[in-house]
Write a structure and sequence with these properties.
By secondary structure, this protein is α/β, with parallel strands linked by helices. Helix content is about 45%, strand content about 20%.
């Protein structure tokens, strides 16, 4: 999500340089501008790592017209939430109806009034940023502020397909706080919440790579997905997570394994050529976690 200091990004798509210049001059003070002179280039930018917050899209373009671009944007999960405004010389009501039915949020006919364009763009950008903010909130655990299970389930499904397709290794870690019920029963749920916040922060700060994913899976359980990593490296990460929580030194007089709060971890590993993923990997990690708890806790077990 963009912070208040970051300008929203607008992608202007038109095969005429003069039209791009007019819209860029009109909007560049308030927005970061990207341009594309063809439908294919527009799709390439829209699917990139820095997605636009709004697309101003011409209809009349060679090779791939604006309607075709809009269809592809709306049919792709990576781009279907980017609002599209058609800016076109077509001013027939049927053209406008067709464009809006494709999923565009607005339709501006040329010649346009600059002030009206600025207001419409501002209104749609405001709605988009609010929508992004609400979506982000729905993916974050309200207590620990790490991603929640919904986020993990959606990301895990996408990453599994990528890892199988690209023959990537992966490790899945299921993590559970040892004797957490006893902690809650004796210290109170308020202290229990504080404990979970500290643990989540320690786990998140221990993961160093941007591709590493952590989420609160439920209650006192966390899940970590490590991609493109070897078996030894994954084991070292798991051990460092256990050490990081132990190093917090959160007193737990009612634990049977230590005088402070500890965690147990179960690890499942996917080799590069294995199609193993999704439910199988989750079950293996969960079984490994059960084994770690049965064999004394405050340790990692691997399947």
């Amino acid at each position: 999500m963009k912070t208040a200091s970051m300008k929203p990004t607008i992608l202007i798509v038109d095969d005429m340089a003069a039209n791009i210049a007019i819209l860029s001059d009109l909007l560049q003070d308030d927005y970061k501008i990207k341009i594309a002179k063809s439908g294919q280039k527009a799709l390439e930018i829209a699917k990139g790592s820095e997605k636009p917050d709004l697309i101003l899209l011409d209809i009349e373009m060679p090779e791939m017209n604006g309607y075709e671009v809009c269809k592809e944007l709306k049919n792709n999960t990576l781009t279907n939430n980017i609002p599209v405004i058609f800016v076109t010389a077509r001013n027939d009501v049927k053209d406008e109806e067709y464009g809006l039915n494709l999923g565009a949020v607005d339709y501006i006919s040329k010649p346009f009034h600059p002030t009206i364009v600025k207001i419409r763009v501002k209104n749609h950008i405001t709605l988009k940023l609010k929508s992004d903010w609400l979506e982000e909130l729905s993916m974050v655990d309200g207590l620990t502020h790490v991603p929640n299970r919904r986020y993990f389930d959606e990301e895990y499904q996408k990453k599994c397909k990528e890892m199988i397709r690209d023959h990537k290794t992966a490790a899945l870690l299921m993590i559970d706080v040892d004797y957490f019920k006893r902690y809650n029963d004796h210290y109170g749920h308020g202290k229990g919440d504080e404990c979970l916040i500290k643990i989540a922060t320690a786990l998140k700060s221990t993961l160093k790579r941007p591709s590493d994913i952590i989420a609160r899976y439920g209650g006192e359980e966390f899940v970590v997905l490590l991609q493109s990593i070897d078996h030894e490296g994954a084991q070292k990460v798991a051990e460092s997570l256990i050490e990081a929580v132990s190093a917090l030194g959160i007193r737990h007089e009612y634990s049977s394994v230590a005088s402070h709060v500890t965690i147990s971890a179960g690890m499942a590993f996917k080799e590069a050529e294995e199609a193993l993923c999704k439910e199988e990997l989750l079950k293996m990690a969960d079984d490994a976690l059960y084994r770690a708890k049965e064999s004394g806790r405050n340790k990692i077990a691997i399947l």
